[in-house]
Amino acid sequence: MQRLGVALGMVLCLSACAELPKNVERPVSTALESPADTPLALLVKQRREAAATRYDSGFLLVDGPQAAYGSRLALAQDAQKTLDLQYYAIRADASTAHLLRAVRDAARRGVRVRILLDDFHSTGRDAVVMYLAFEPNIEMRMFNPLAGARTSTLSRLVNSIDDAARIQQRMHNKLFVADNVLAVTGGRNLGDAYFGNAPNANFVDLDVLVAGRIVQDLSRSFDAYWNNERAYPVESLVTRKELDKIRADAKAAAERERSAPQEPQAGEGGAAQADPRPPRWDRQPMDLRTASFVWAPAAVMVDKPAKIPPDRSNATGVSRKAPGVEVTGGKAGPSGKGRSGALQVAVNAAADGDTVVEGLLQLIGLARQDLLIISPYFVPGPDMKQAFAAALARGVRIRVLTNSLASNDAPVAHVGYARHRDELLQMGVELHELRSEQAGLGSAFGSSGDSAGGESRSMLHSKVLVMDGQWVVVGSMNLDQRSQLQNTEIAILVRSSELSRIATDKIEVALREGAWHVEEEDGQLVWRAPQGSGLQDATTEPDASPGLRLMIKLFGPLAPDRLL
Description:
The protein is of the alpha+beta class.
């Protein structure tokens, strides 16, 4: 402990003077004004005409690693004018390298590329992704940056300790937009673990490929963040020489540990060096010409960038009232007659919330029959429990799929769920927890033809709500207080019985065959084994080691819900 104290003292001394740059130039730019004359726009027009629909926005659920990767790769390869990427995390590994190489190639053929990345994870090897900012035709900005050297996350956190409230608030939005006419949004960040290609643990996730008019609303949300004063050009935060040193240090560290399995190191332009492990699926783009879109009225729900305050004087913590949620889109067709009546009611309800999550709670107030919820980190506050209680009183069935302790990549977050588990069950909420050991990622959502394959730990990362067989919400938000009060989030709200049926079928397979069903029996919790698993029911957190269970029991009470 003494040596740790000395080390922390040295870090404080070395980094105390680090500050964010002042008077930064941020040239204002916006999304493509007229997307109608690009090949992707023509493709969307053809798909819509083939569907003979009056709706001008189409949706395709993307749930397997191959489809998730292939959809983004197709957008990067087919874009002709603009690419806009907005992410919480971009890892410098093999999957991302191949994808970012396609983004770089797009820039080299004249596509304007803008990349907006939250700055929390851009240290060490992952900082090398910032090389893209030095490529022609690519602009890259970091949102809500931390001051200090990028060689160490610890030094940056210590340097910002007097600004802890702001550091807790992150841009959690995820967008991949091509020519302002096709986009992918949902829960995935960019990295091996998000595309089923990590050797030991992979995320189970769900995105939606979006086509048509509603993409322009996604782009407007991107522009709001891109032009915000919290977005700093990479060149104002780090030099190319500094990135050269970070890359060299990462390469040297990998060489010292050559005997152990290693992920690839990032190279020039954010591209990685050769990966000794072959990918678990073909790195091929999705054939967008055959994409089966569901055309339906929809709206975009997005937190305003001002949810994260612009300076320390305004960073008063989570008690600060959020600036409101933006709810846009949903026109019925090119005639511009406005939203359908049911969608207008839903939009009005969602807009009453101050954040995306609060908007969802308002939307839950419209439920009359059934709620299916997927939230990897599920930490219900008083208002969430109140919304659930009111829905249950109306006769609404509520089913929630979340992580088990064993499948949770952040075990401490499980504490915030576990402390409310008994109360939720007594209220009548049906709880399901993902089984961590899956035969393949596809099994969690019933996509046997699009599985990553192999034996690996599965970690739930999808964020989905299906309501009354008519409404689907896919986004970046969790039903927890961090998403509600601190992070910025984005979601797509779609009114479609067909898309609801597709989502429900996938989720119910996961509940039945890929998750433990938690019940109370004789005053104690029982985890009912997944159907067909051959496992026995459990009376303690399944698949979790005694040491992990003990650690959570000892340290869990010390963590407040709002920080989990």
